[in-house]
UniProtKB/TrEMBL annotation:
Keyword Membrane: yes
Protein name according to UniProt: Lysine exporter LysO family protein
Lineage per the UniProt record: Bacteria, Pseudomonadati, Pseudomonadota, Gammaproteobacteria, Oceanospirillales
Transmembrane region(s): 31-51, 63-84, 104-128, 174-199, 211-235, 242-264, 284-306
Domain of life: Bacteria
Alphabetical keyword list: Membrane, Transmembrane, Transmembrane helix
Biological source species: Halomonas llamarensis
InterPro entries (alphabetical): LysO
Length: 310
């Protein structure tokens, strides 16, 4: 029942056990993580191209993704707003941050590039599908799984070498509270969305457990529920990141916990420069802790909920 969970968690744990101190190797790992994400999303696009009645299926994908995103966002914002009212956490004024995005469009360029990669994968699958047939789509799924295992090992290594011990993470009550609030409200949203998406309750919970980690949720959900639902999970989590880039500068000084928490797992990497730029250095450890915890929770939760229907 839990074999899939073990298979996915094993590379994450093995990667976490590897200490990397040399800066050039740390930089290599960071580049390899980014490269793995692009490979996974390209292969996911190829898999989507294998769907029958592709145009109608993509329309359904967009509608389902919008529905899930709308419900999840409503629950997340309400819960994080409630938490913001009760936490003595205020953003400060930050100096100019080196390499921080200079505009919302610049901040979102990386996310928009991911959409382009998926679209390129779909185009590639449509063009090559008639010549290579089912072998193309079967091999794309298999390669995506192996790329995911490599990505998890590299991310485990990143987490180990982030300079933040687990004790410090677990003792950061603000980061922990934000992460648990985001996770709980997302799961409630998944329960509500499940019947609307024609899914079982546990599948709805799995769909809502990506917490912004789009490359992970896309492959794990796609492997169990098919490429259509994998695409829904991807666009639901990616849209979270896009909205976070817009939301953070607008609300971080009035509702700091909401601004930090809404990005989910991305608050420890992709949205972190925006949090630091607009919220100050004091927000950084809280954002890293919140994102770290959600990154650790996401894989076991997705696979646990999916295993309930296995």
């Amino acid at each position: 029942m839990f074999s899939g969970l073990i298979i996915v968690l094993l590379p994450l744990v093995l990667g976490y056990l590897v200490p990397v101190r040399q800066p050039h190797w740390q930089a290599f790992i960071n580049h390899a993580v980014n490269g793995s994400v692009y490979v996974i999303l390209l292969l996911m696009g190829v898999s989507l191209a294998g769907l029958e009645n592709l145009s109608s299926q993509l329309s359904r994908l967009g509608g389902n993704a919008l529905l899930l995103f709308s419900i999840t966002t409503a629950f997340n914002l309400a819960a994080l707003w409630w938490l913001s009212q009760r936490m003595a956490l205020k953003a400060g004024i930050s100096p100019v941050v080196k390499d921080a995005p200079t505009s919302k469009l610049a901040a979102m360029q990386g996310s928009l590039l991911l959409v382009i990669v998926v679209a390129f994968g779909v185009t590639l699958g449509v063009l090559l599908g008639p010549q290579l047939g089912e072998a193309l789509f079967d091999n794309a799924d298999r390669l995506a799984e192996w790329a995911l295992y490599a990505l998890l090992a590299l991310i485990g290594c990143q987490l180990r070498n982030s300079g933040m011990p687990l004790k410090q993470i677990l003792l950061n009550r603000m980061g922990l509270a934000i992460a648990l609030t985001l996770a709980a409200s997302s799961l409630l949203a998944g329960l509500l969305a499940a019947p609307l998406l024609a899914l079982e309750w546990n599948e709805g919970l799995a769909m809502a457990s990506g917490f912004g980690w789009y490359s992970l949720s896309a492959i794990l959900i796609g492997d169990h529920l098919g490429p259509l639902m994998g695409g829904v999970a991807f666009f639901n989590d990616l849209t979270r990141e896009l909205l976070a880039f817009i939301l953070i500068p607008l609300v971080i000084h009035r509702h700091t916990a909401l601004a930090i928490g809404y990005g989910g797992a991305t608050s420890m990497d992709f949205t972190l420069p925006v949090i630091q730029q607009h919220g100050g250095v004091a927000c950084v450890p809280i954002a890293v802790v919140s994102g770290f915890i959600l990154s650790l929770l996401s894989p076991p939760l997705i696979l646990f909920f999916l295993s309930l229907s296995a």
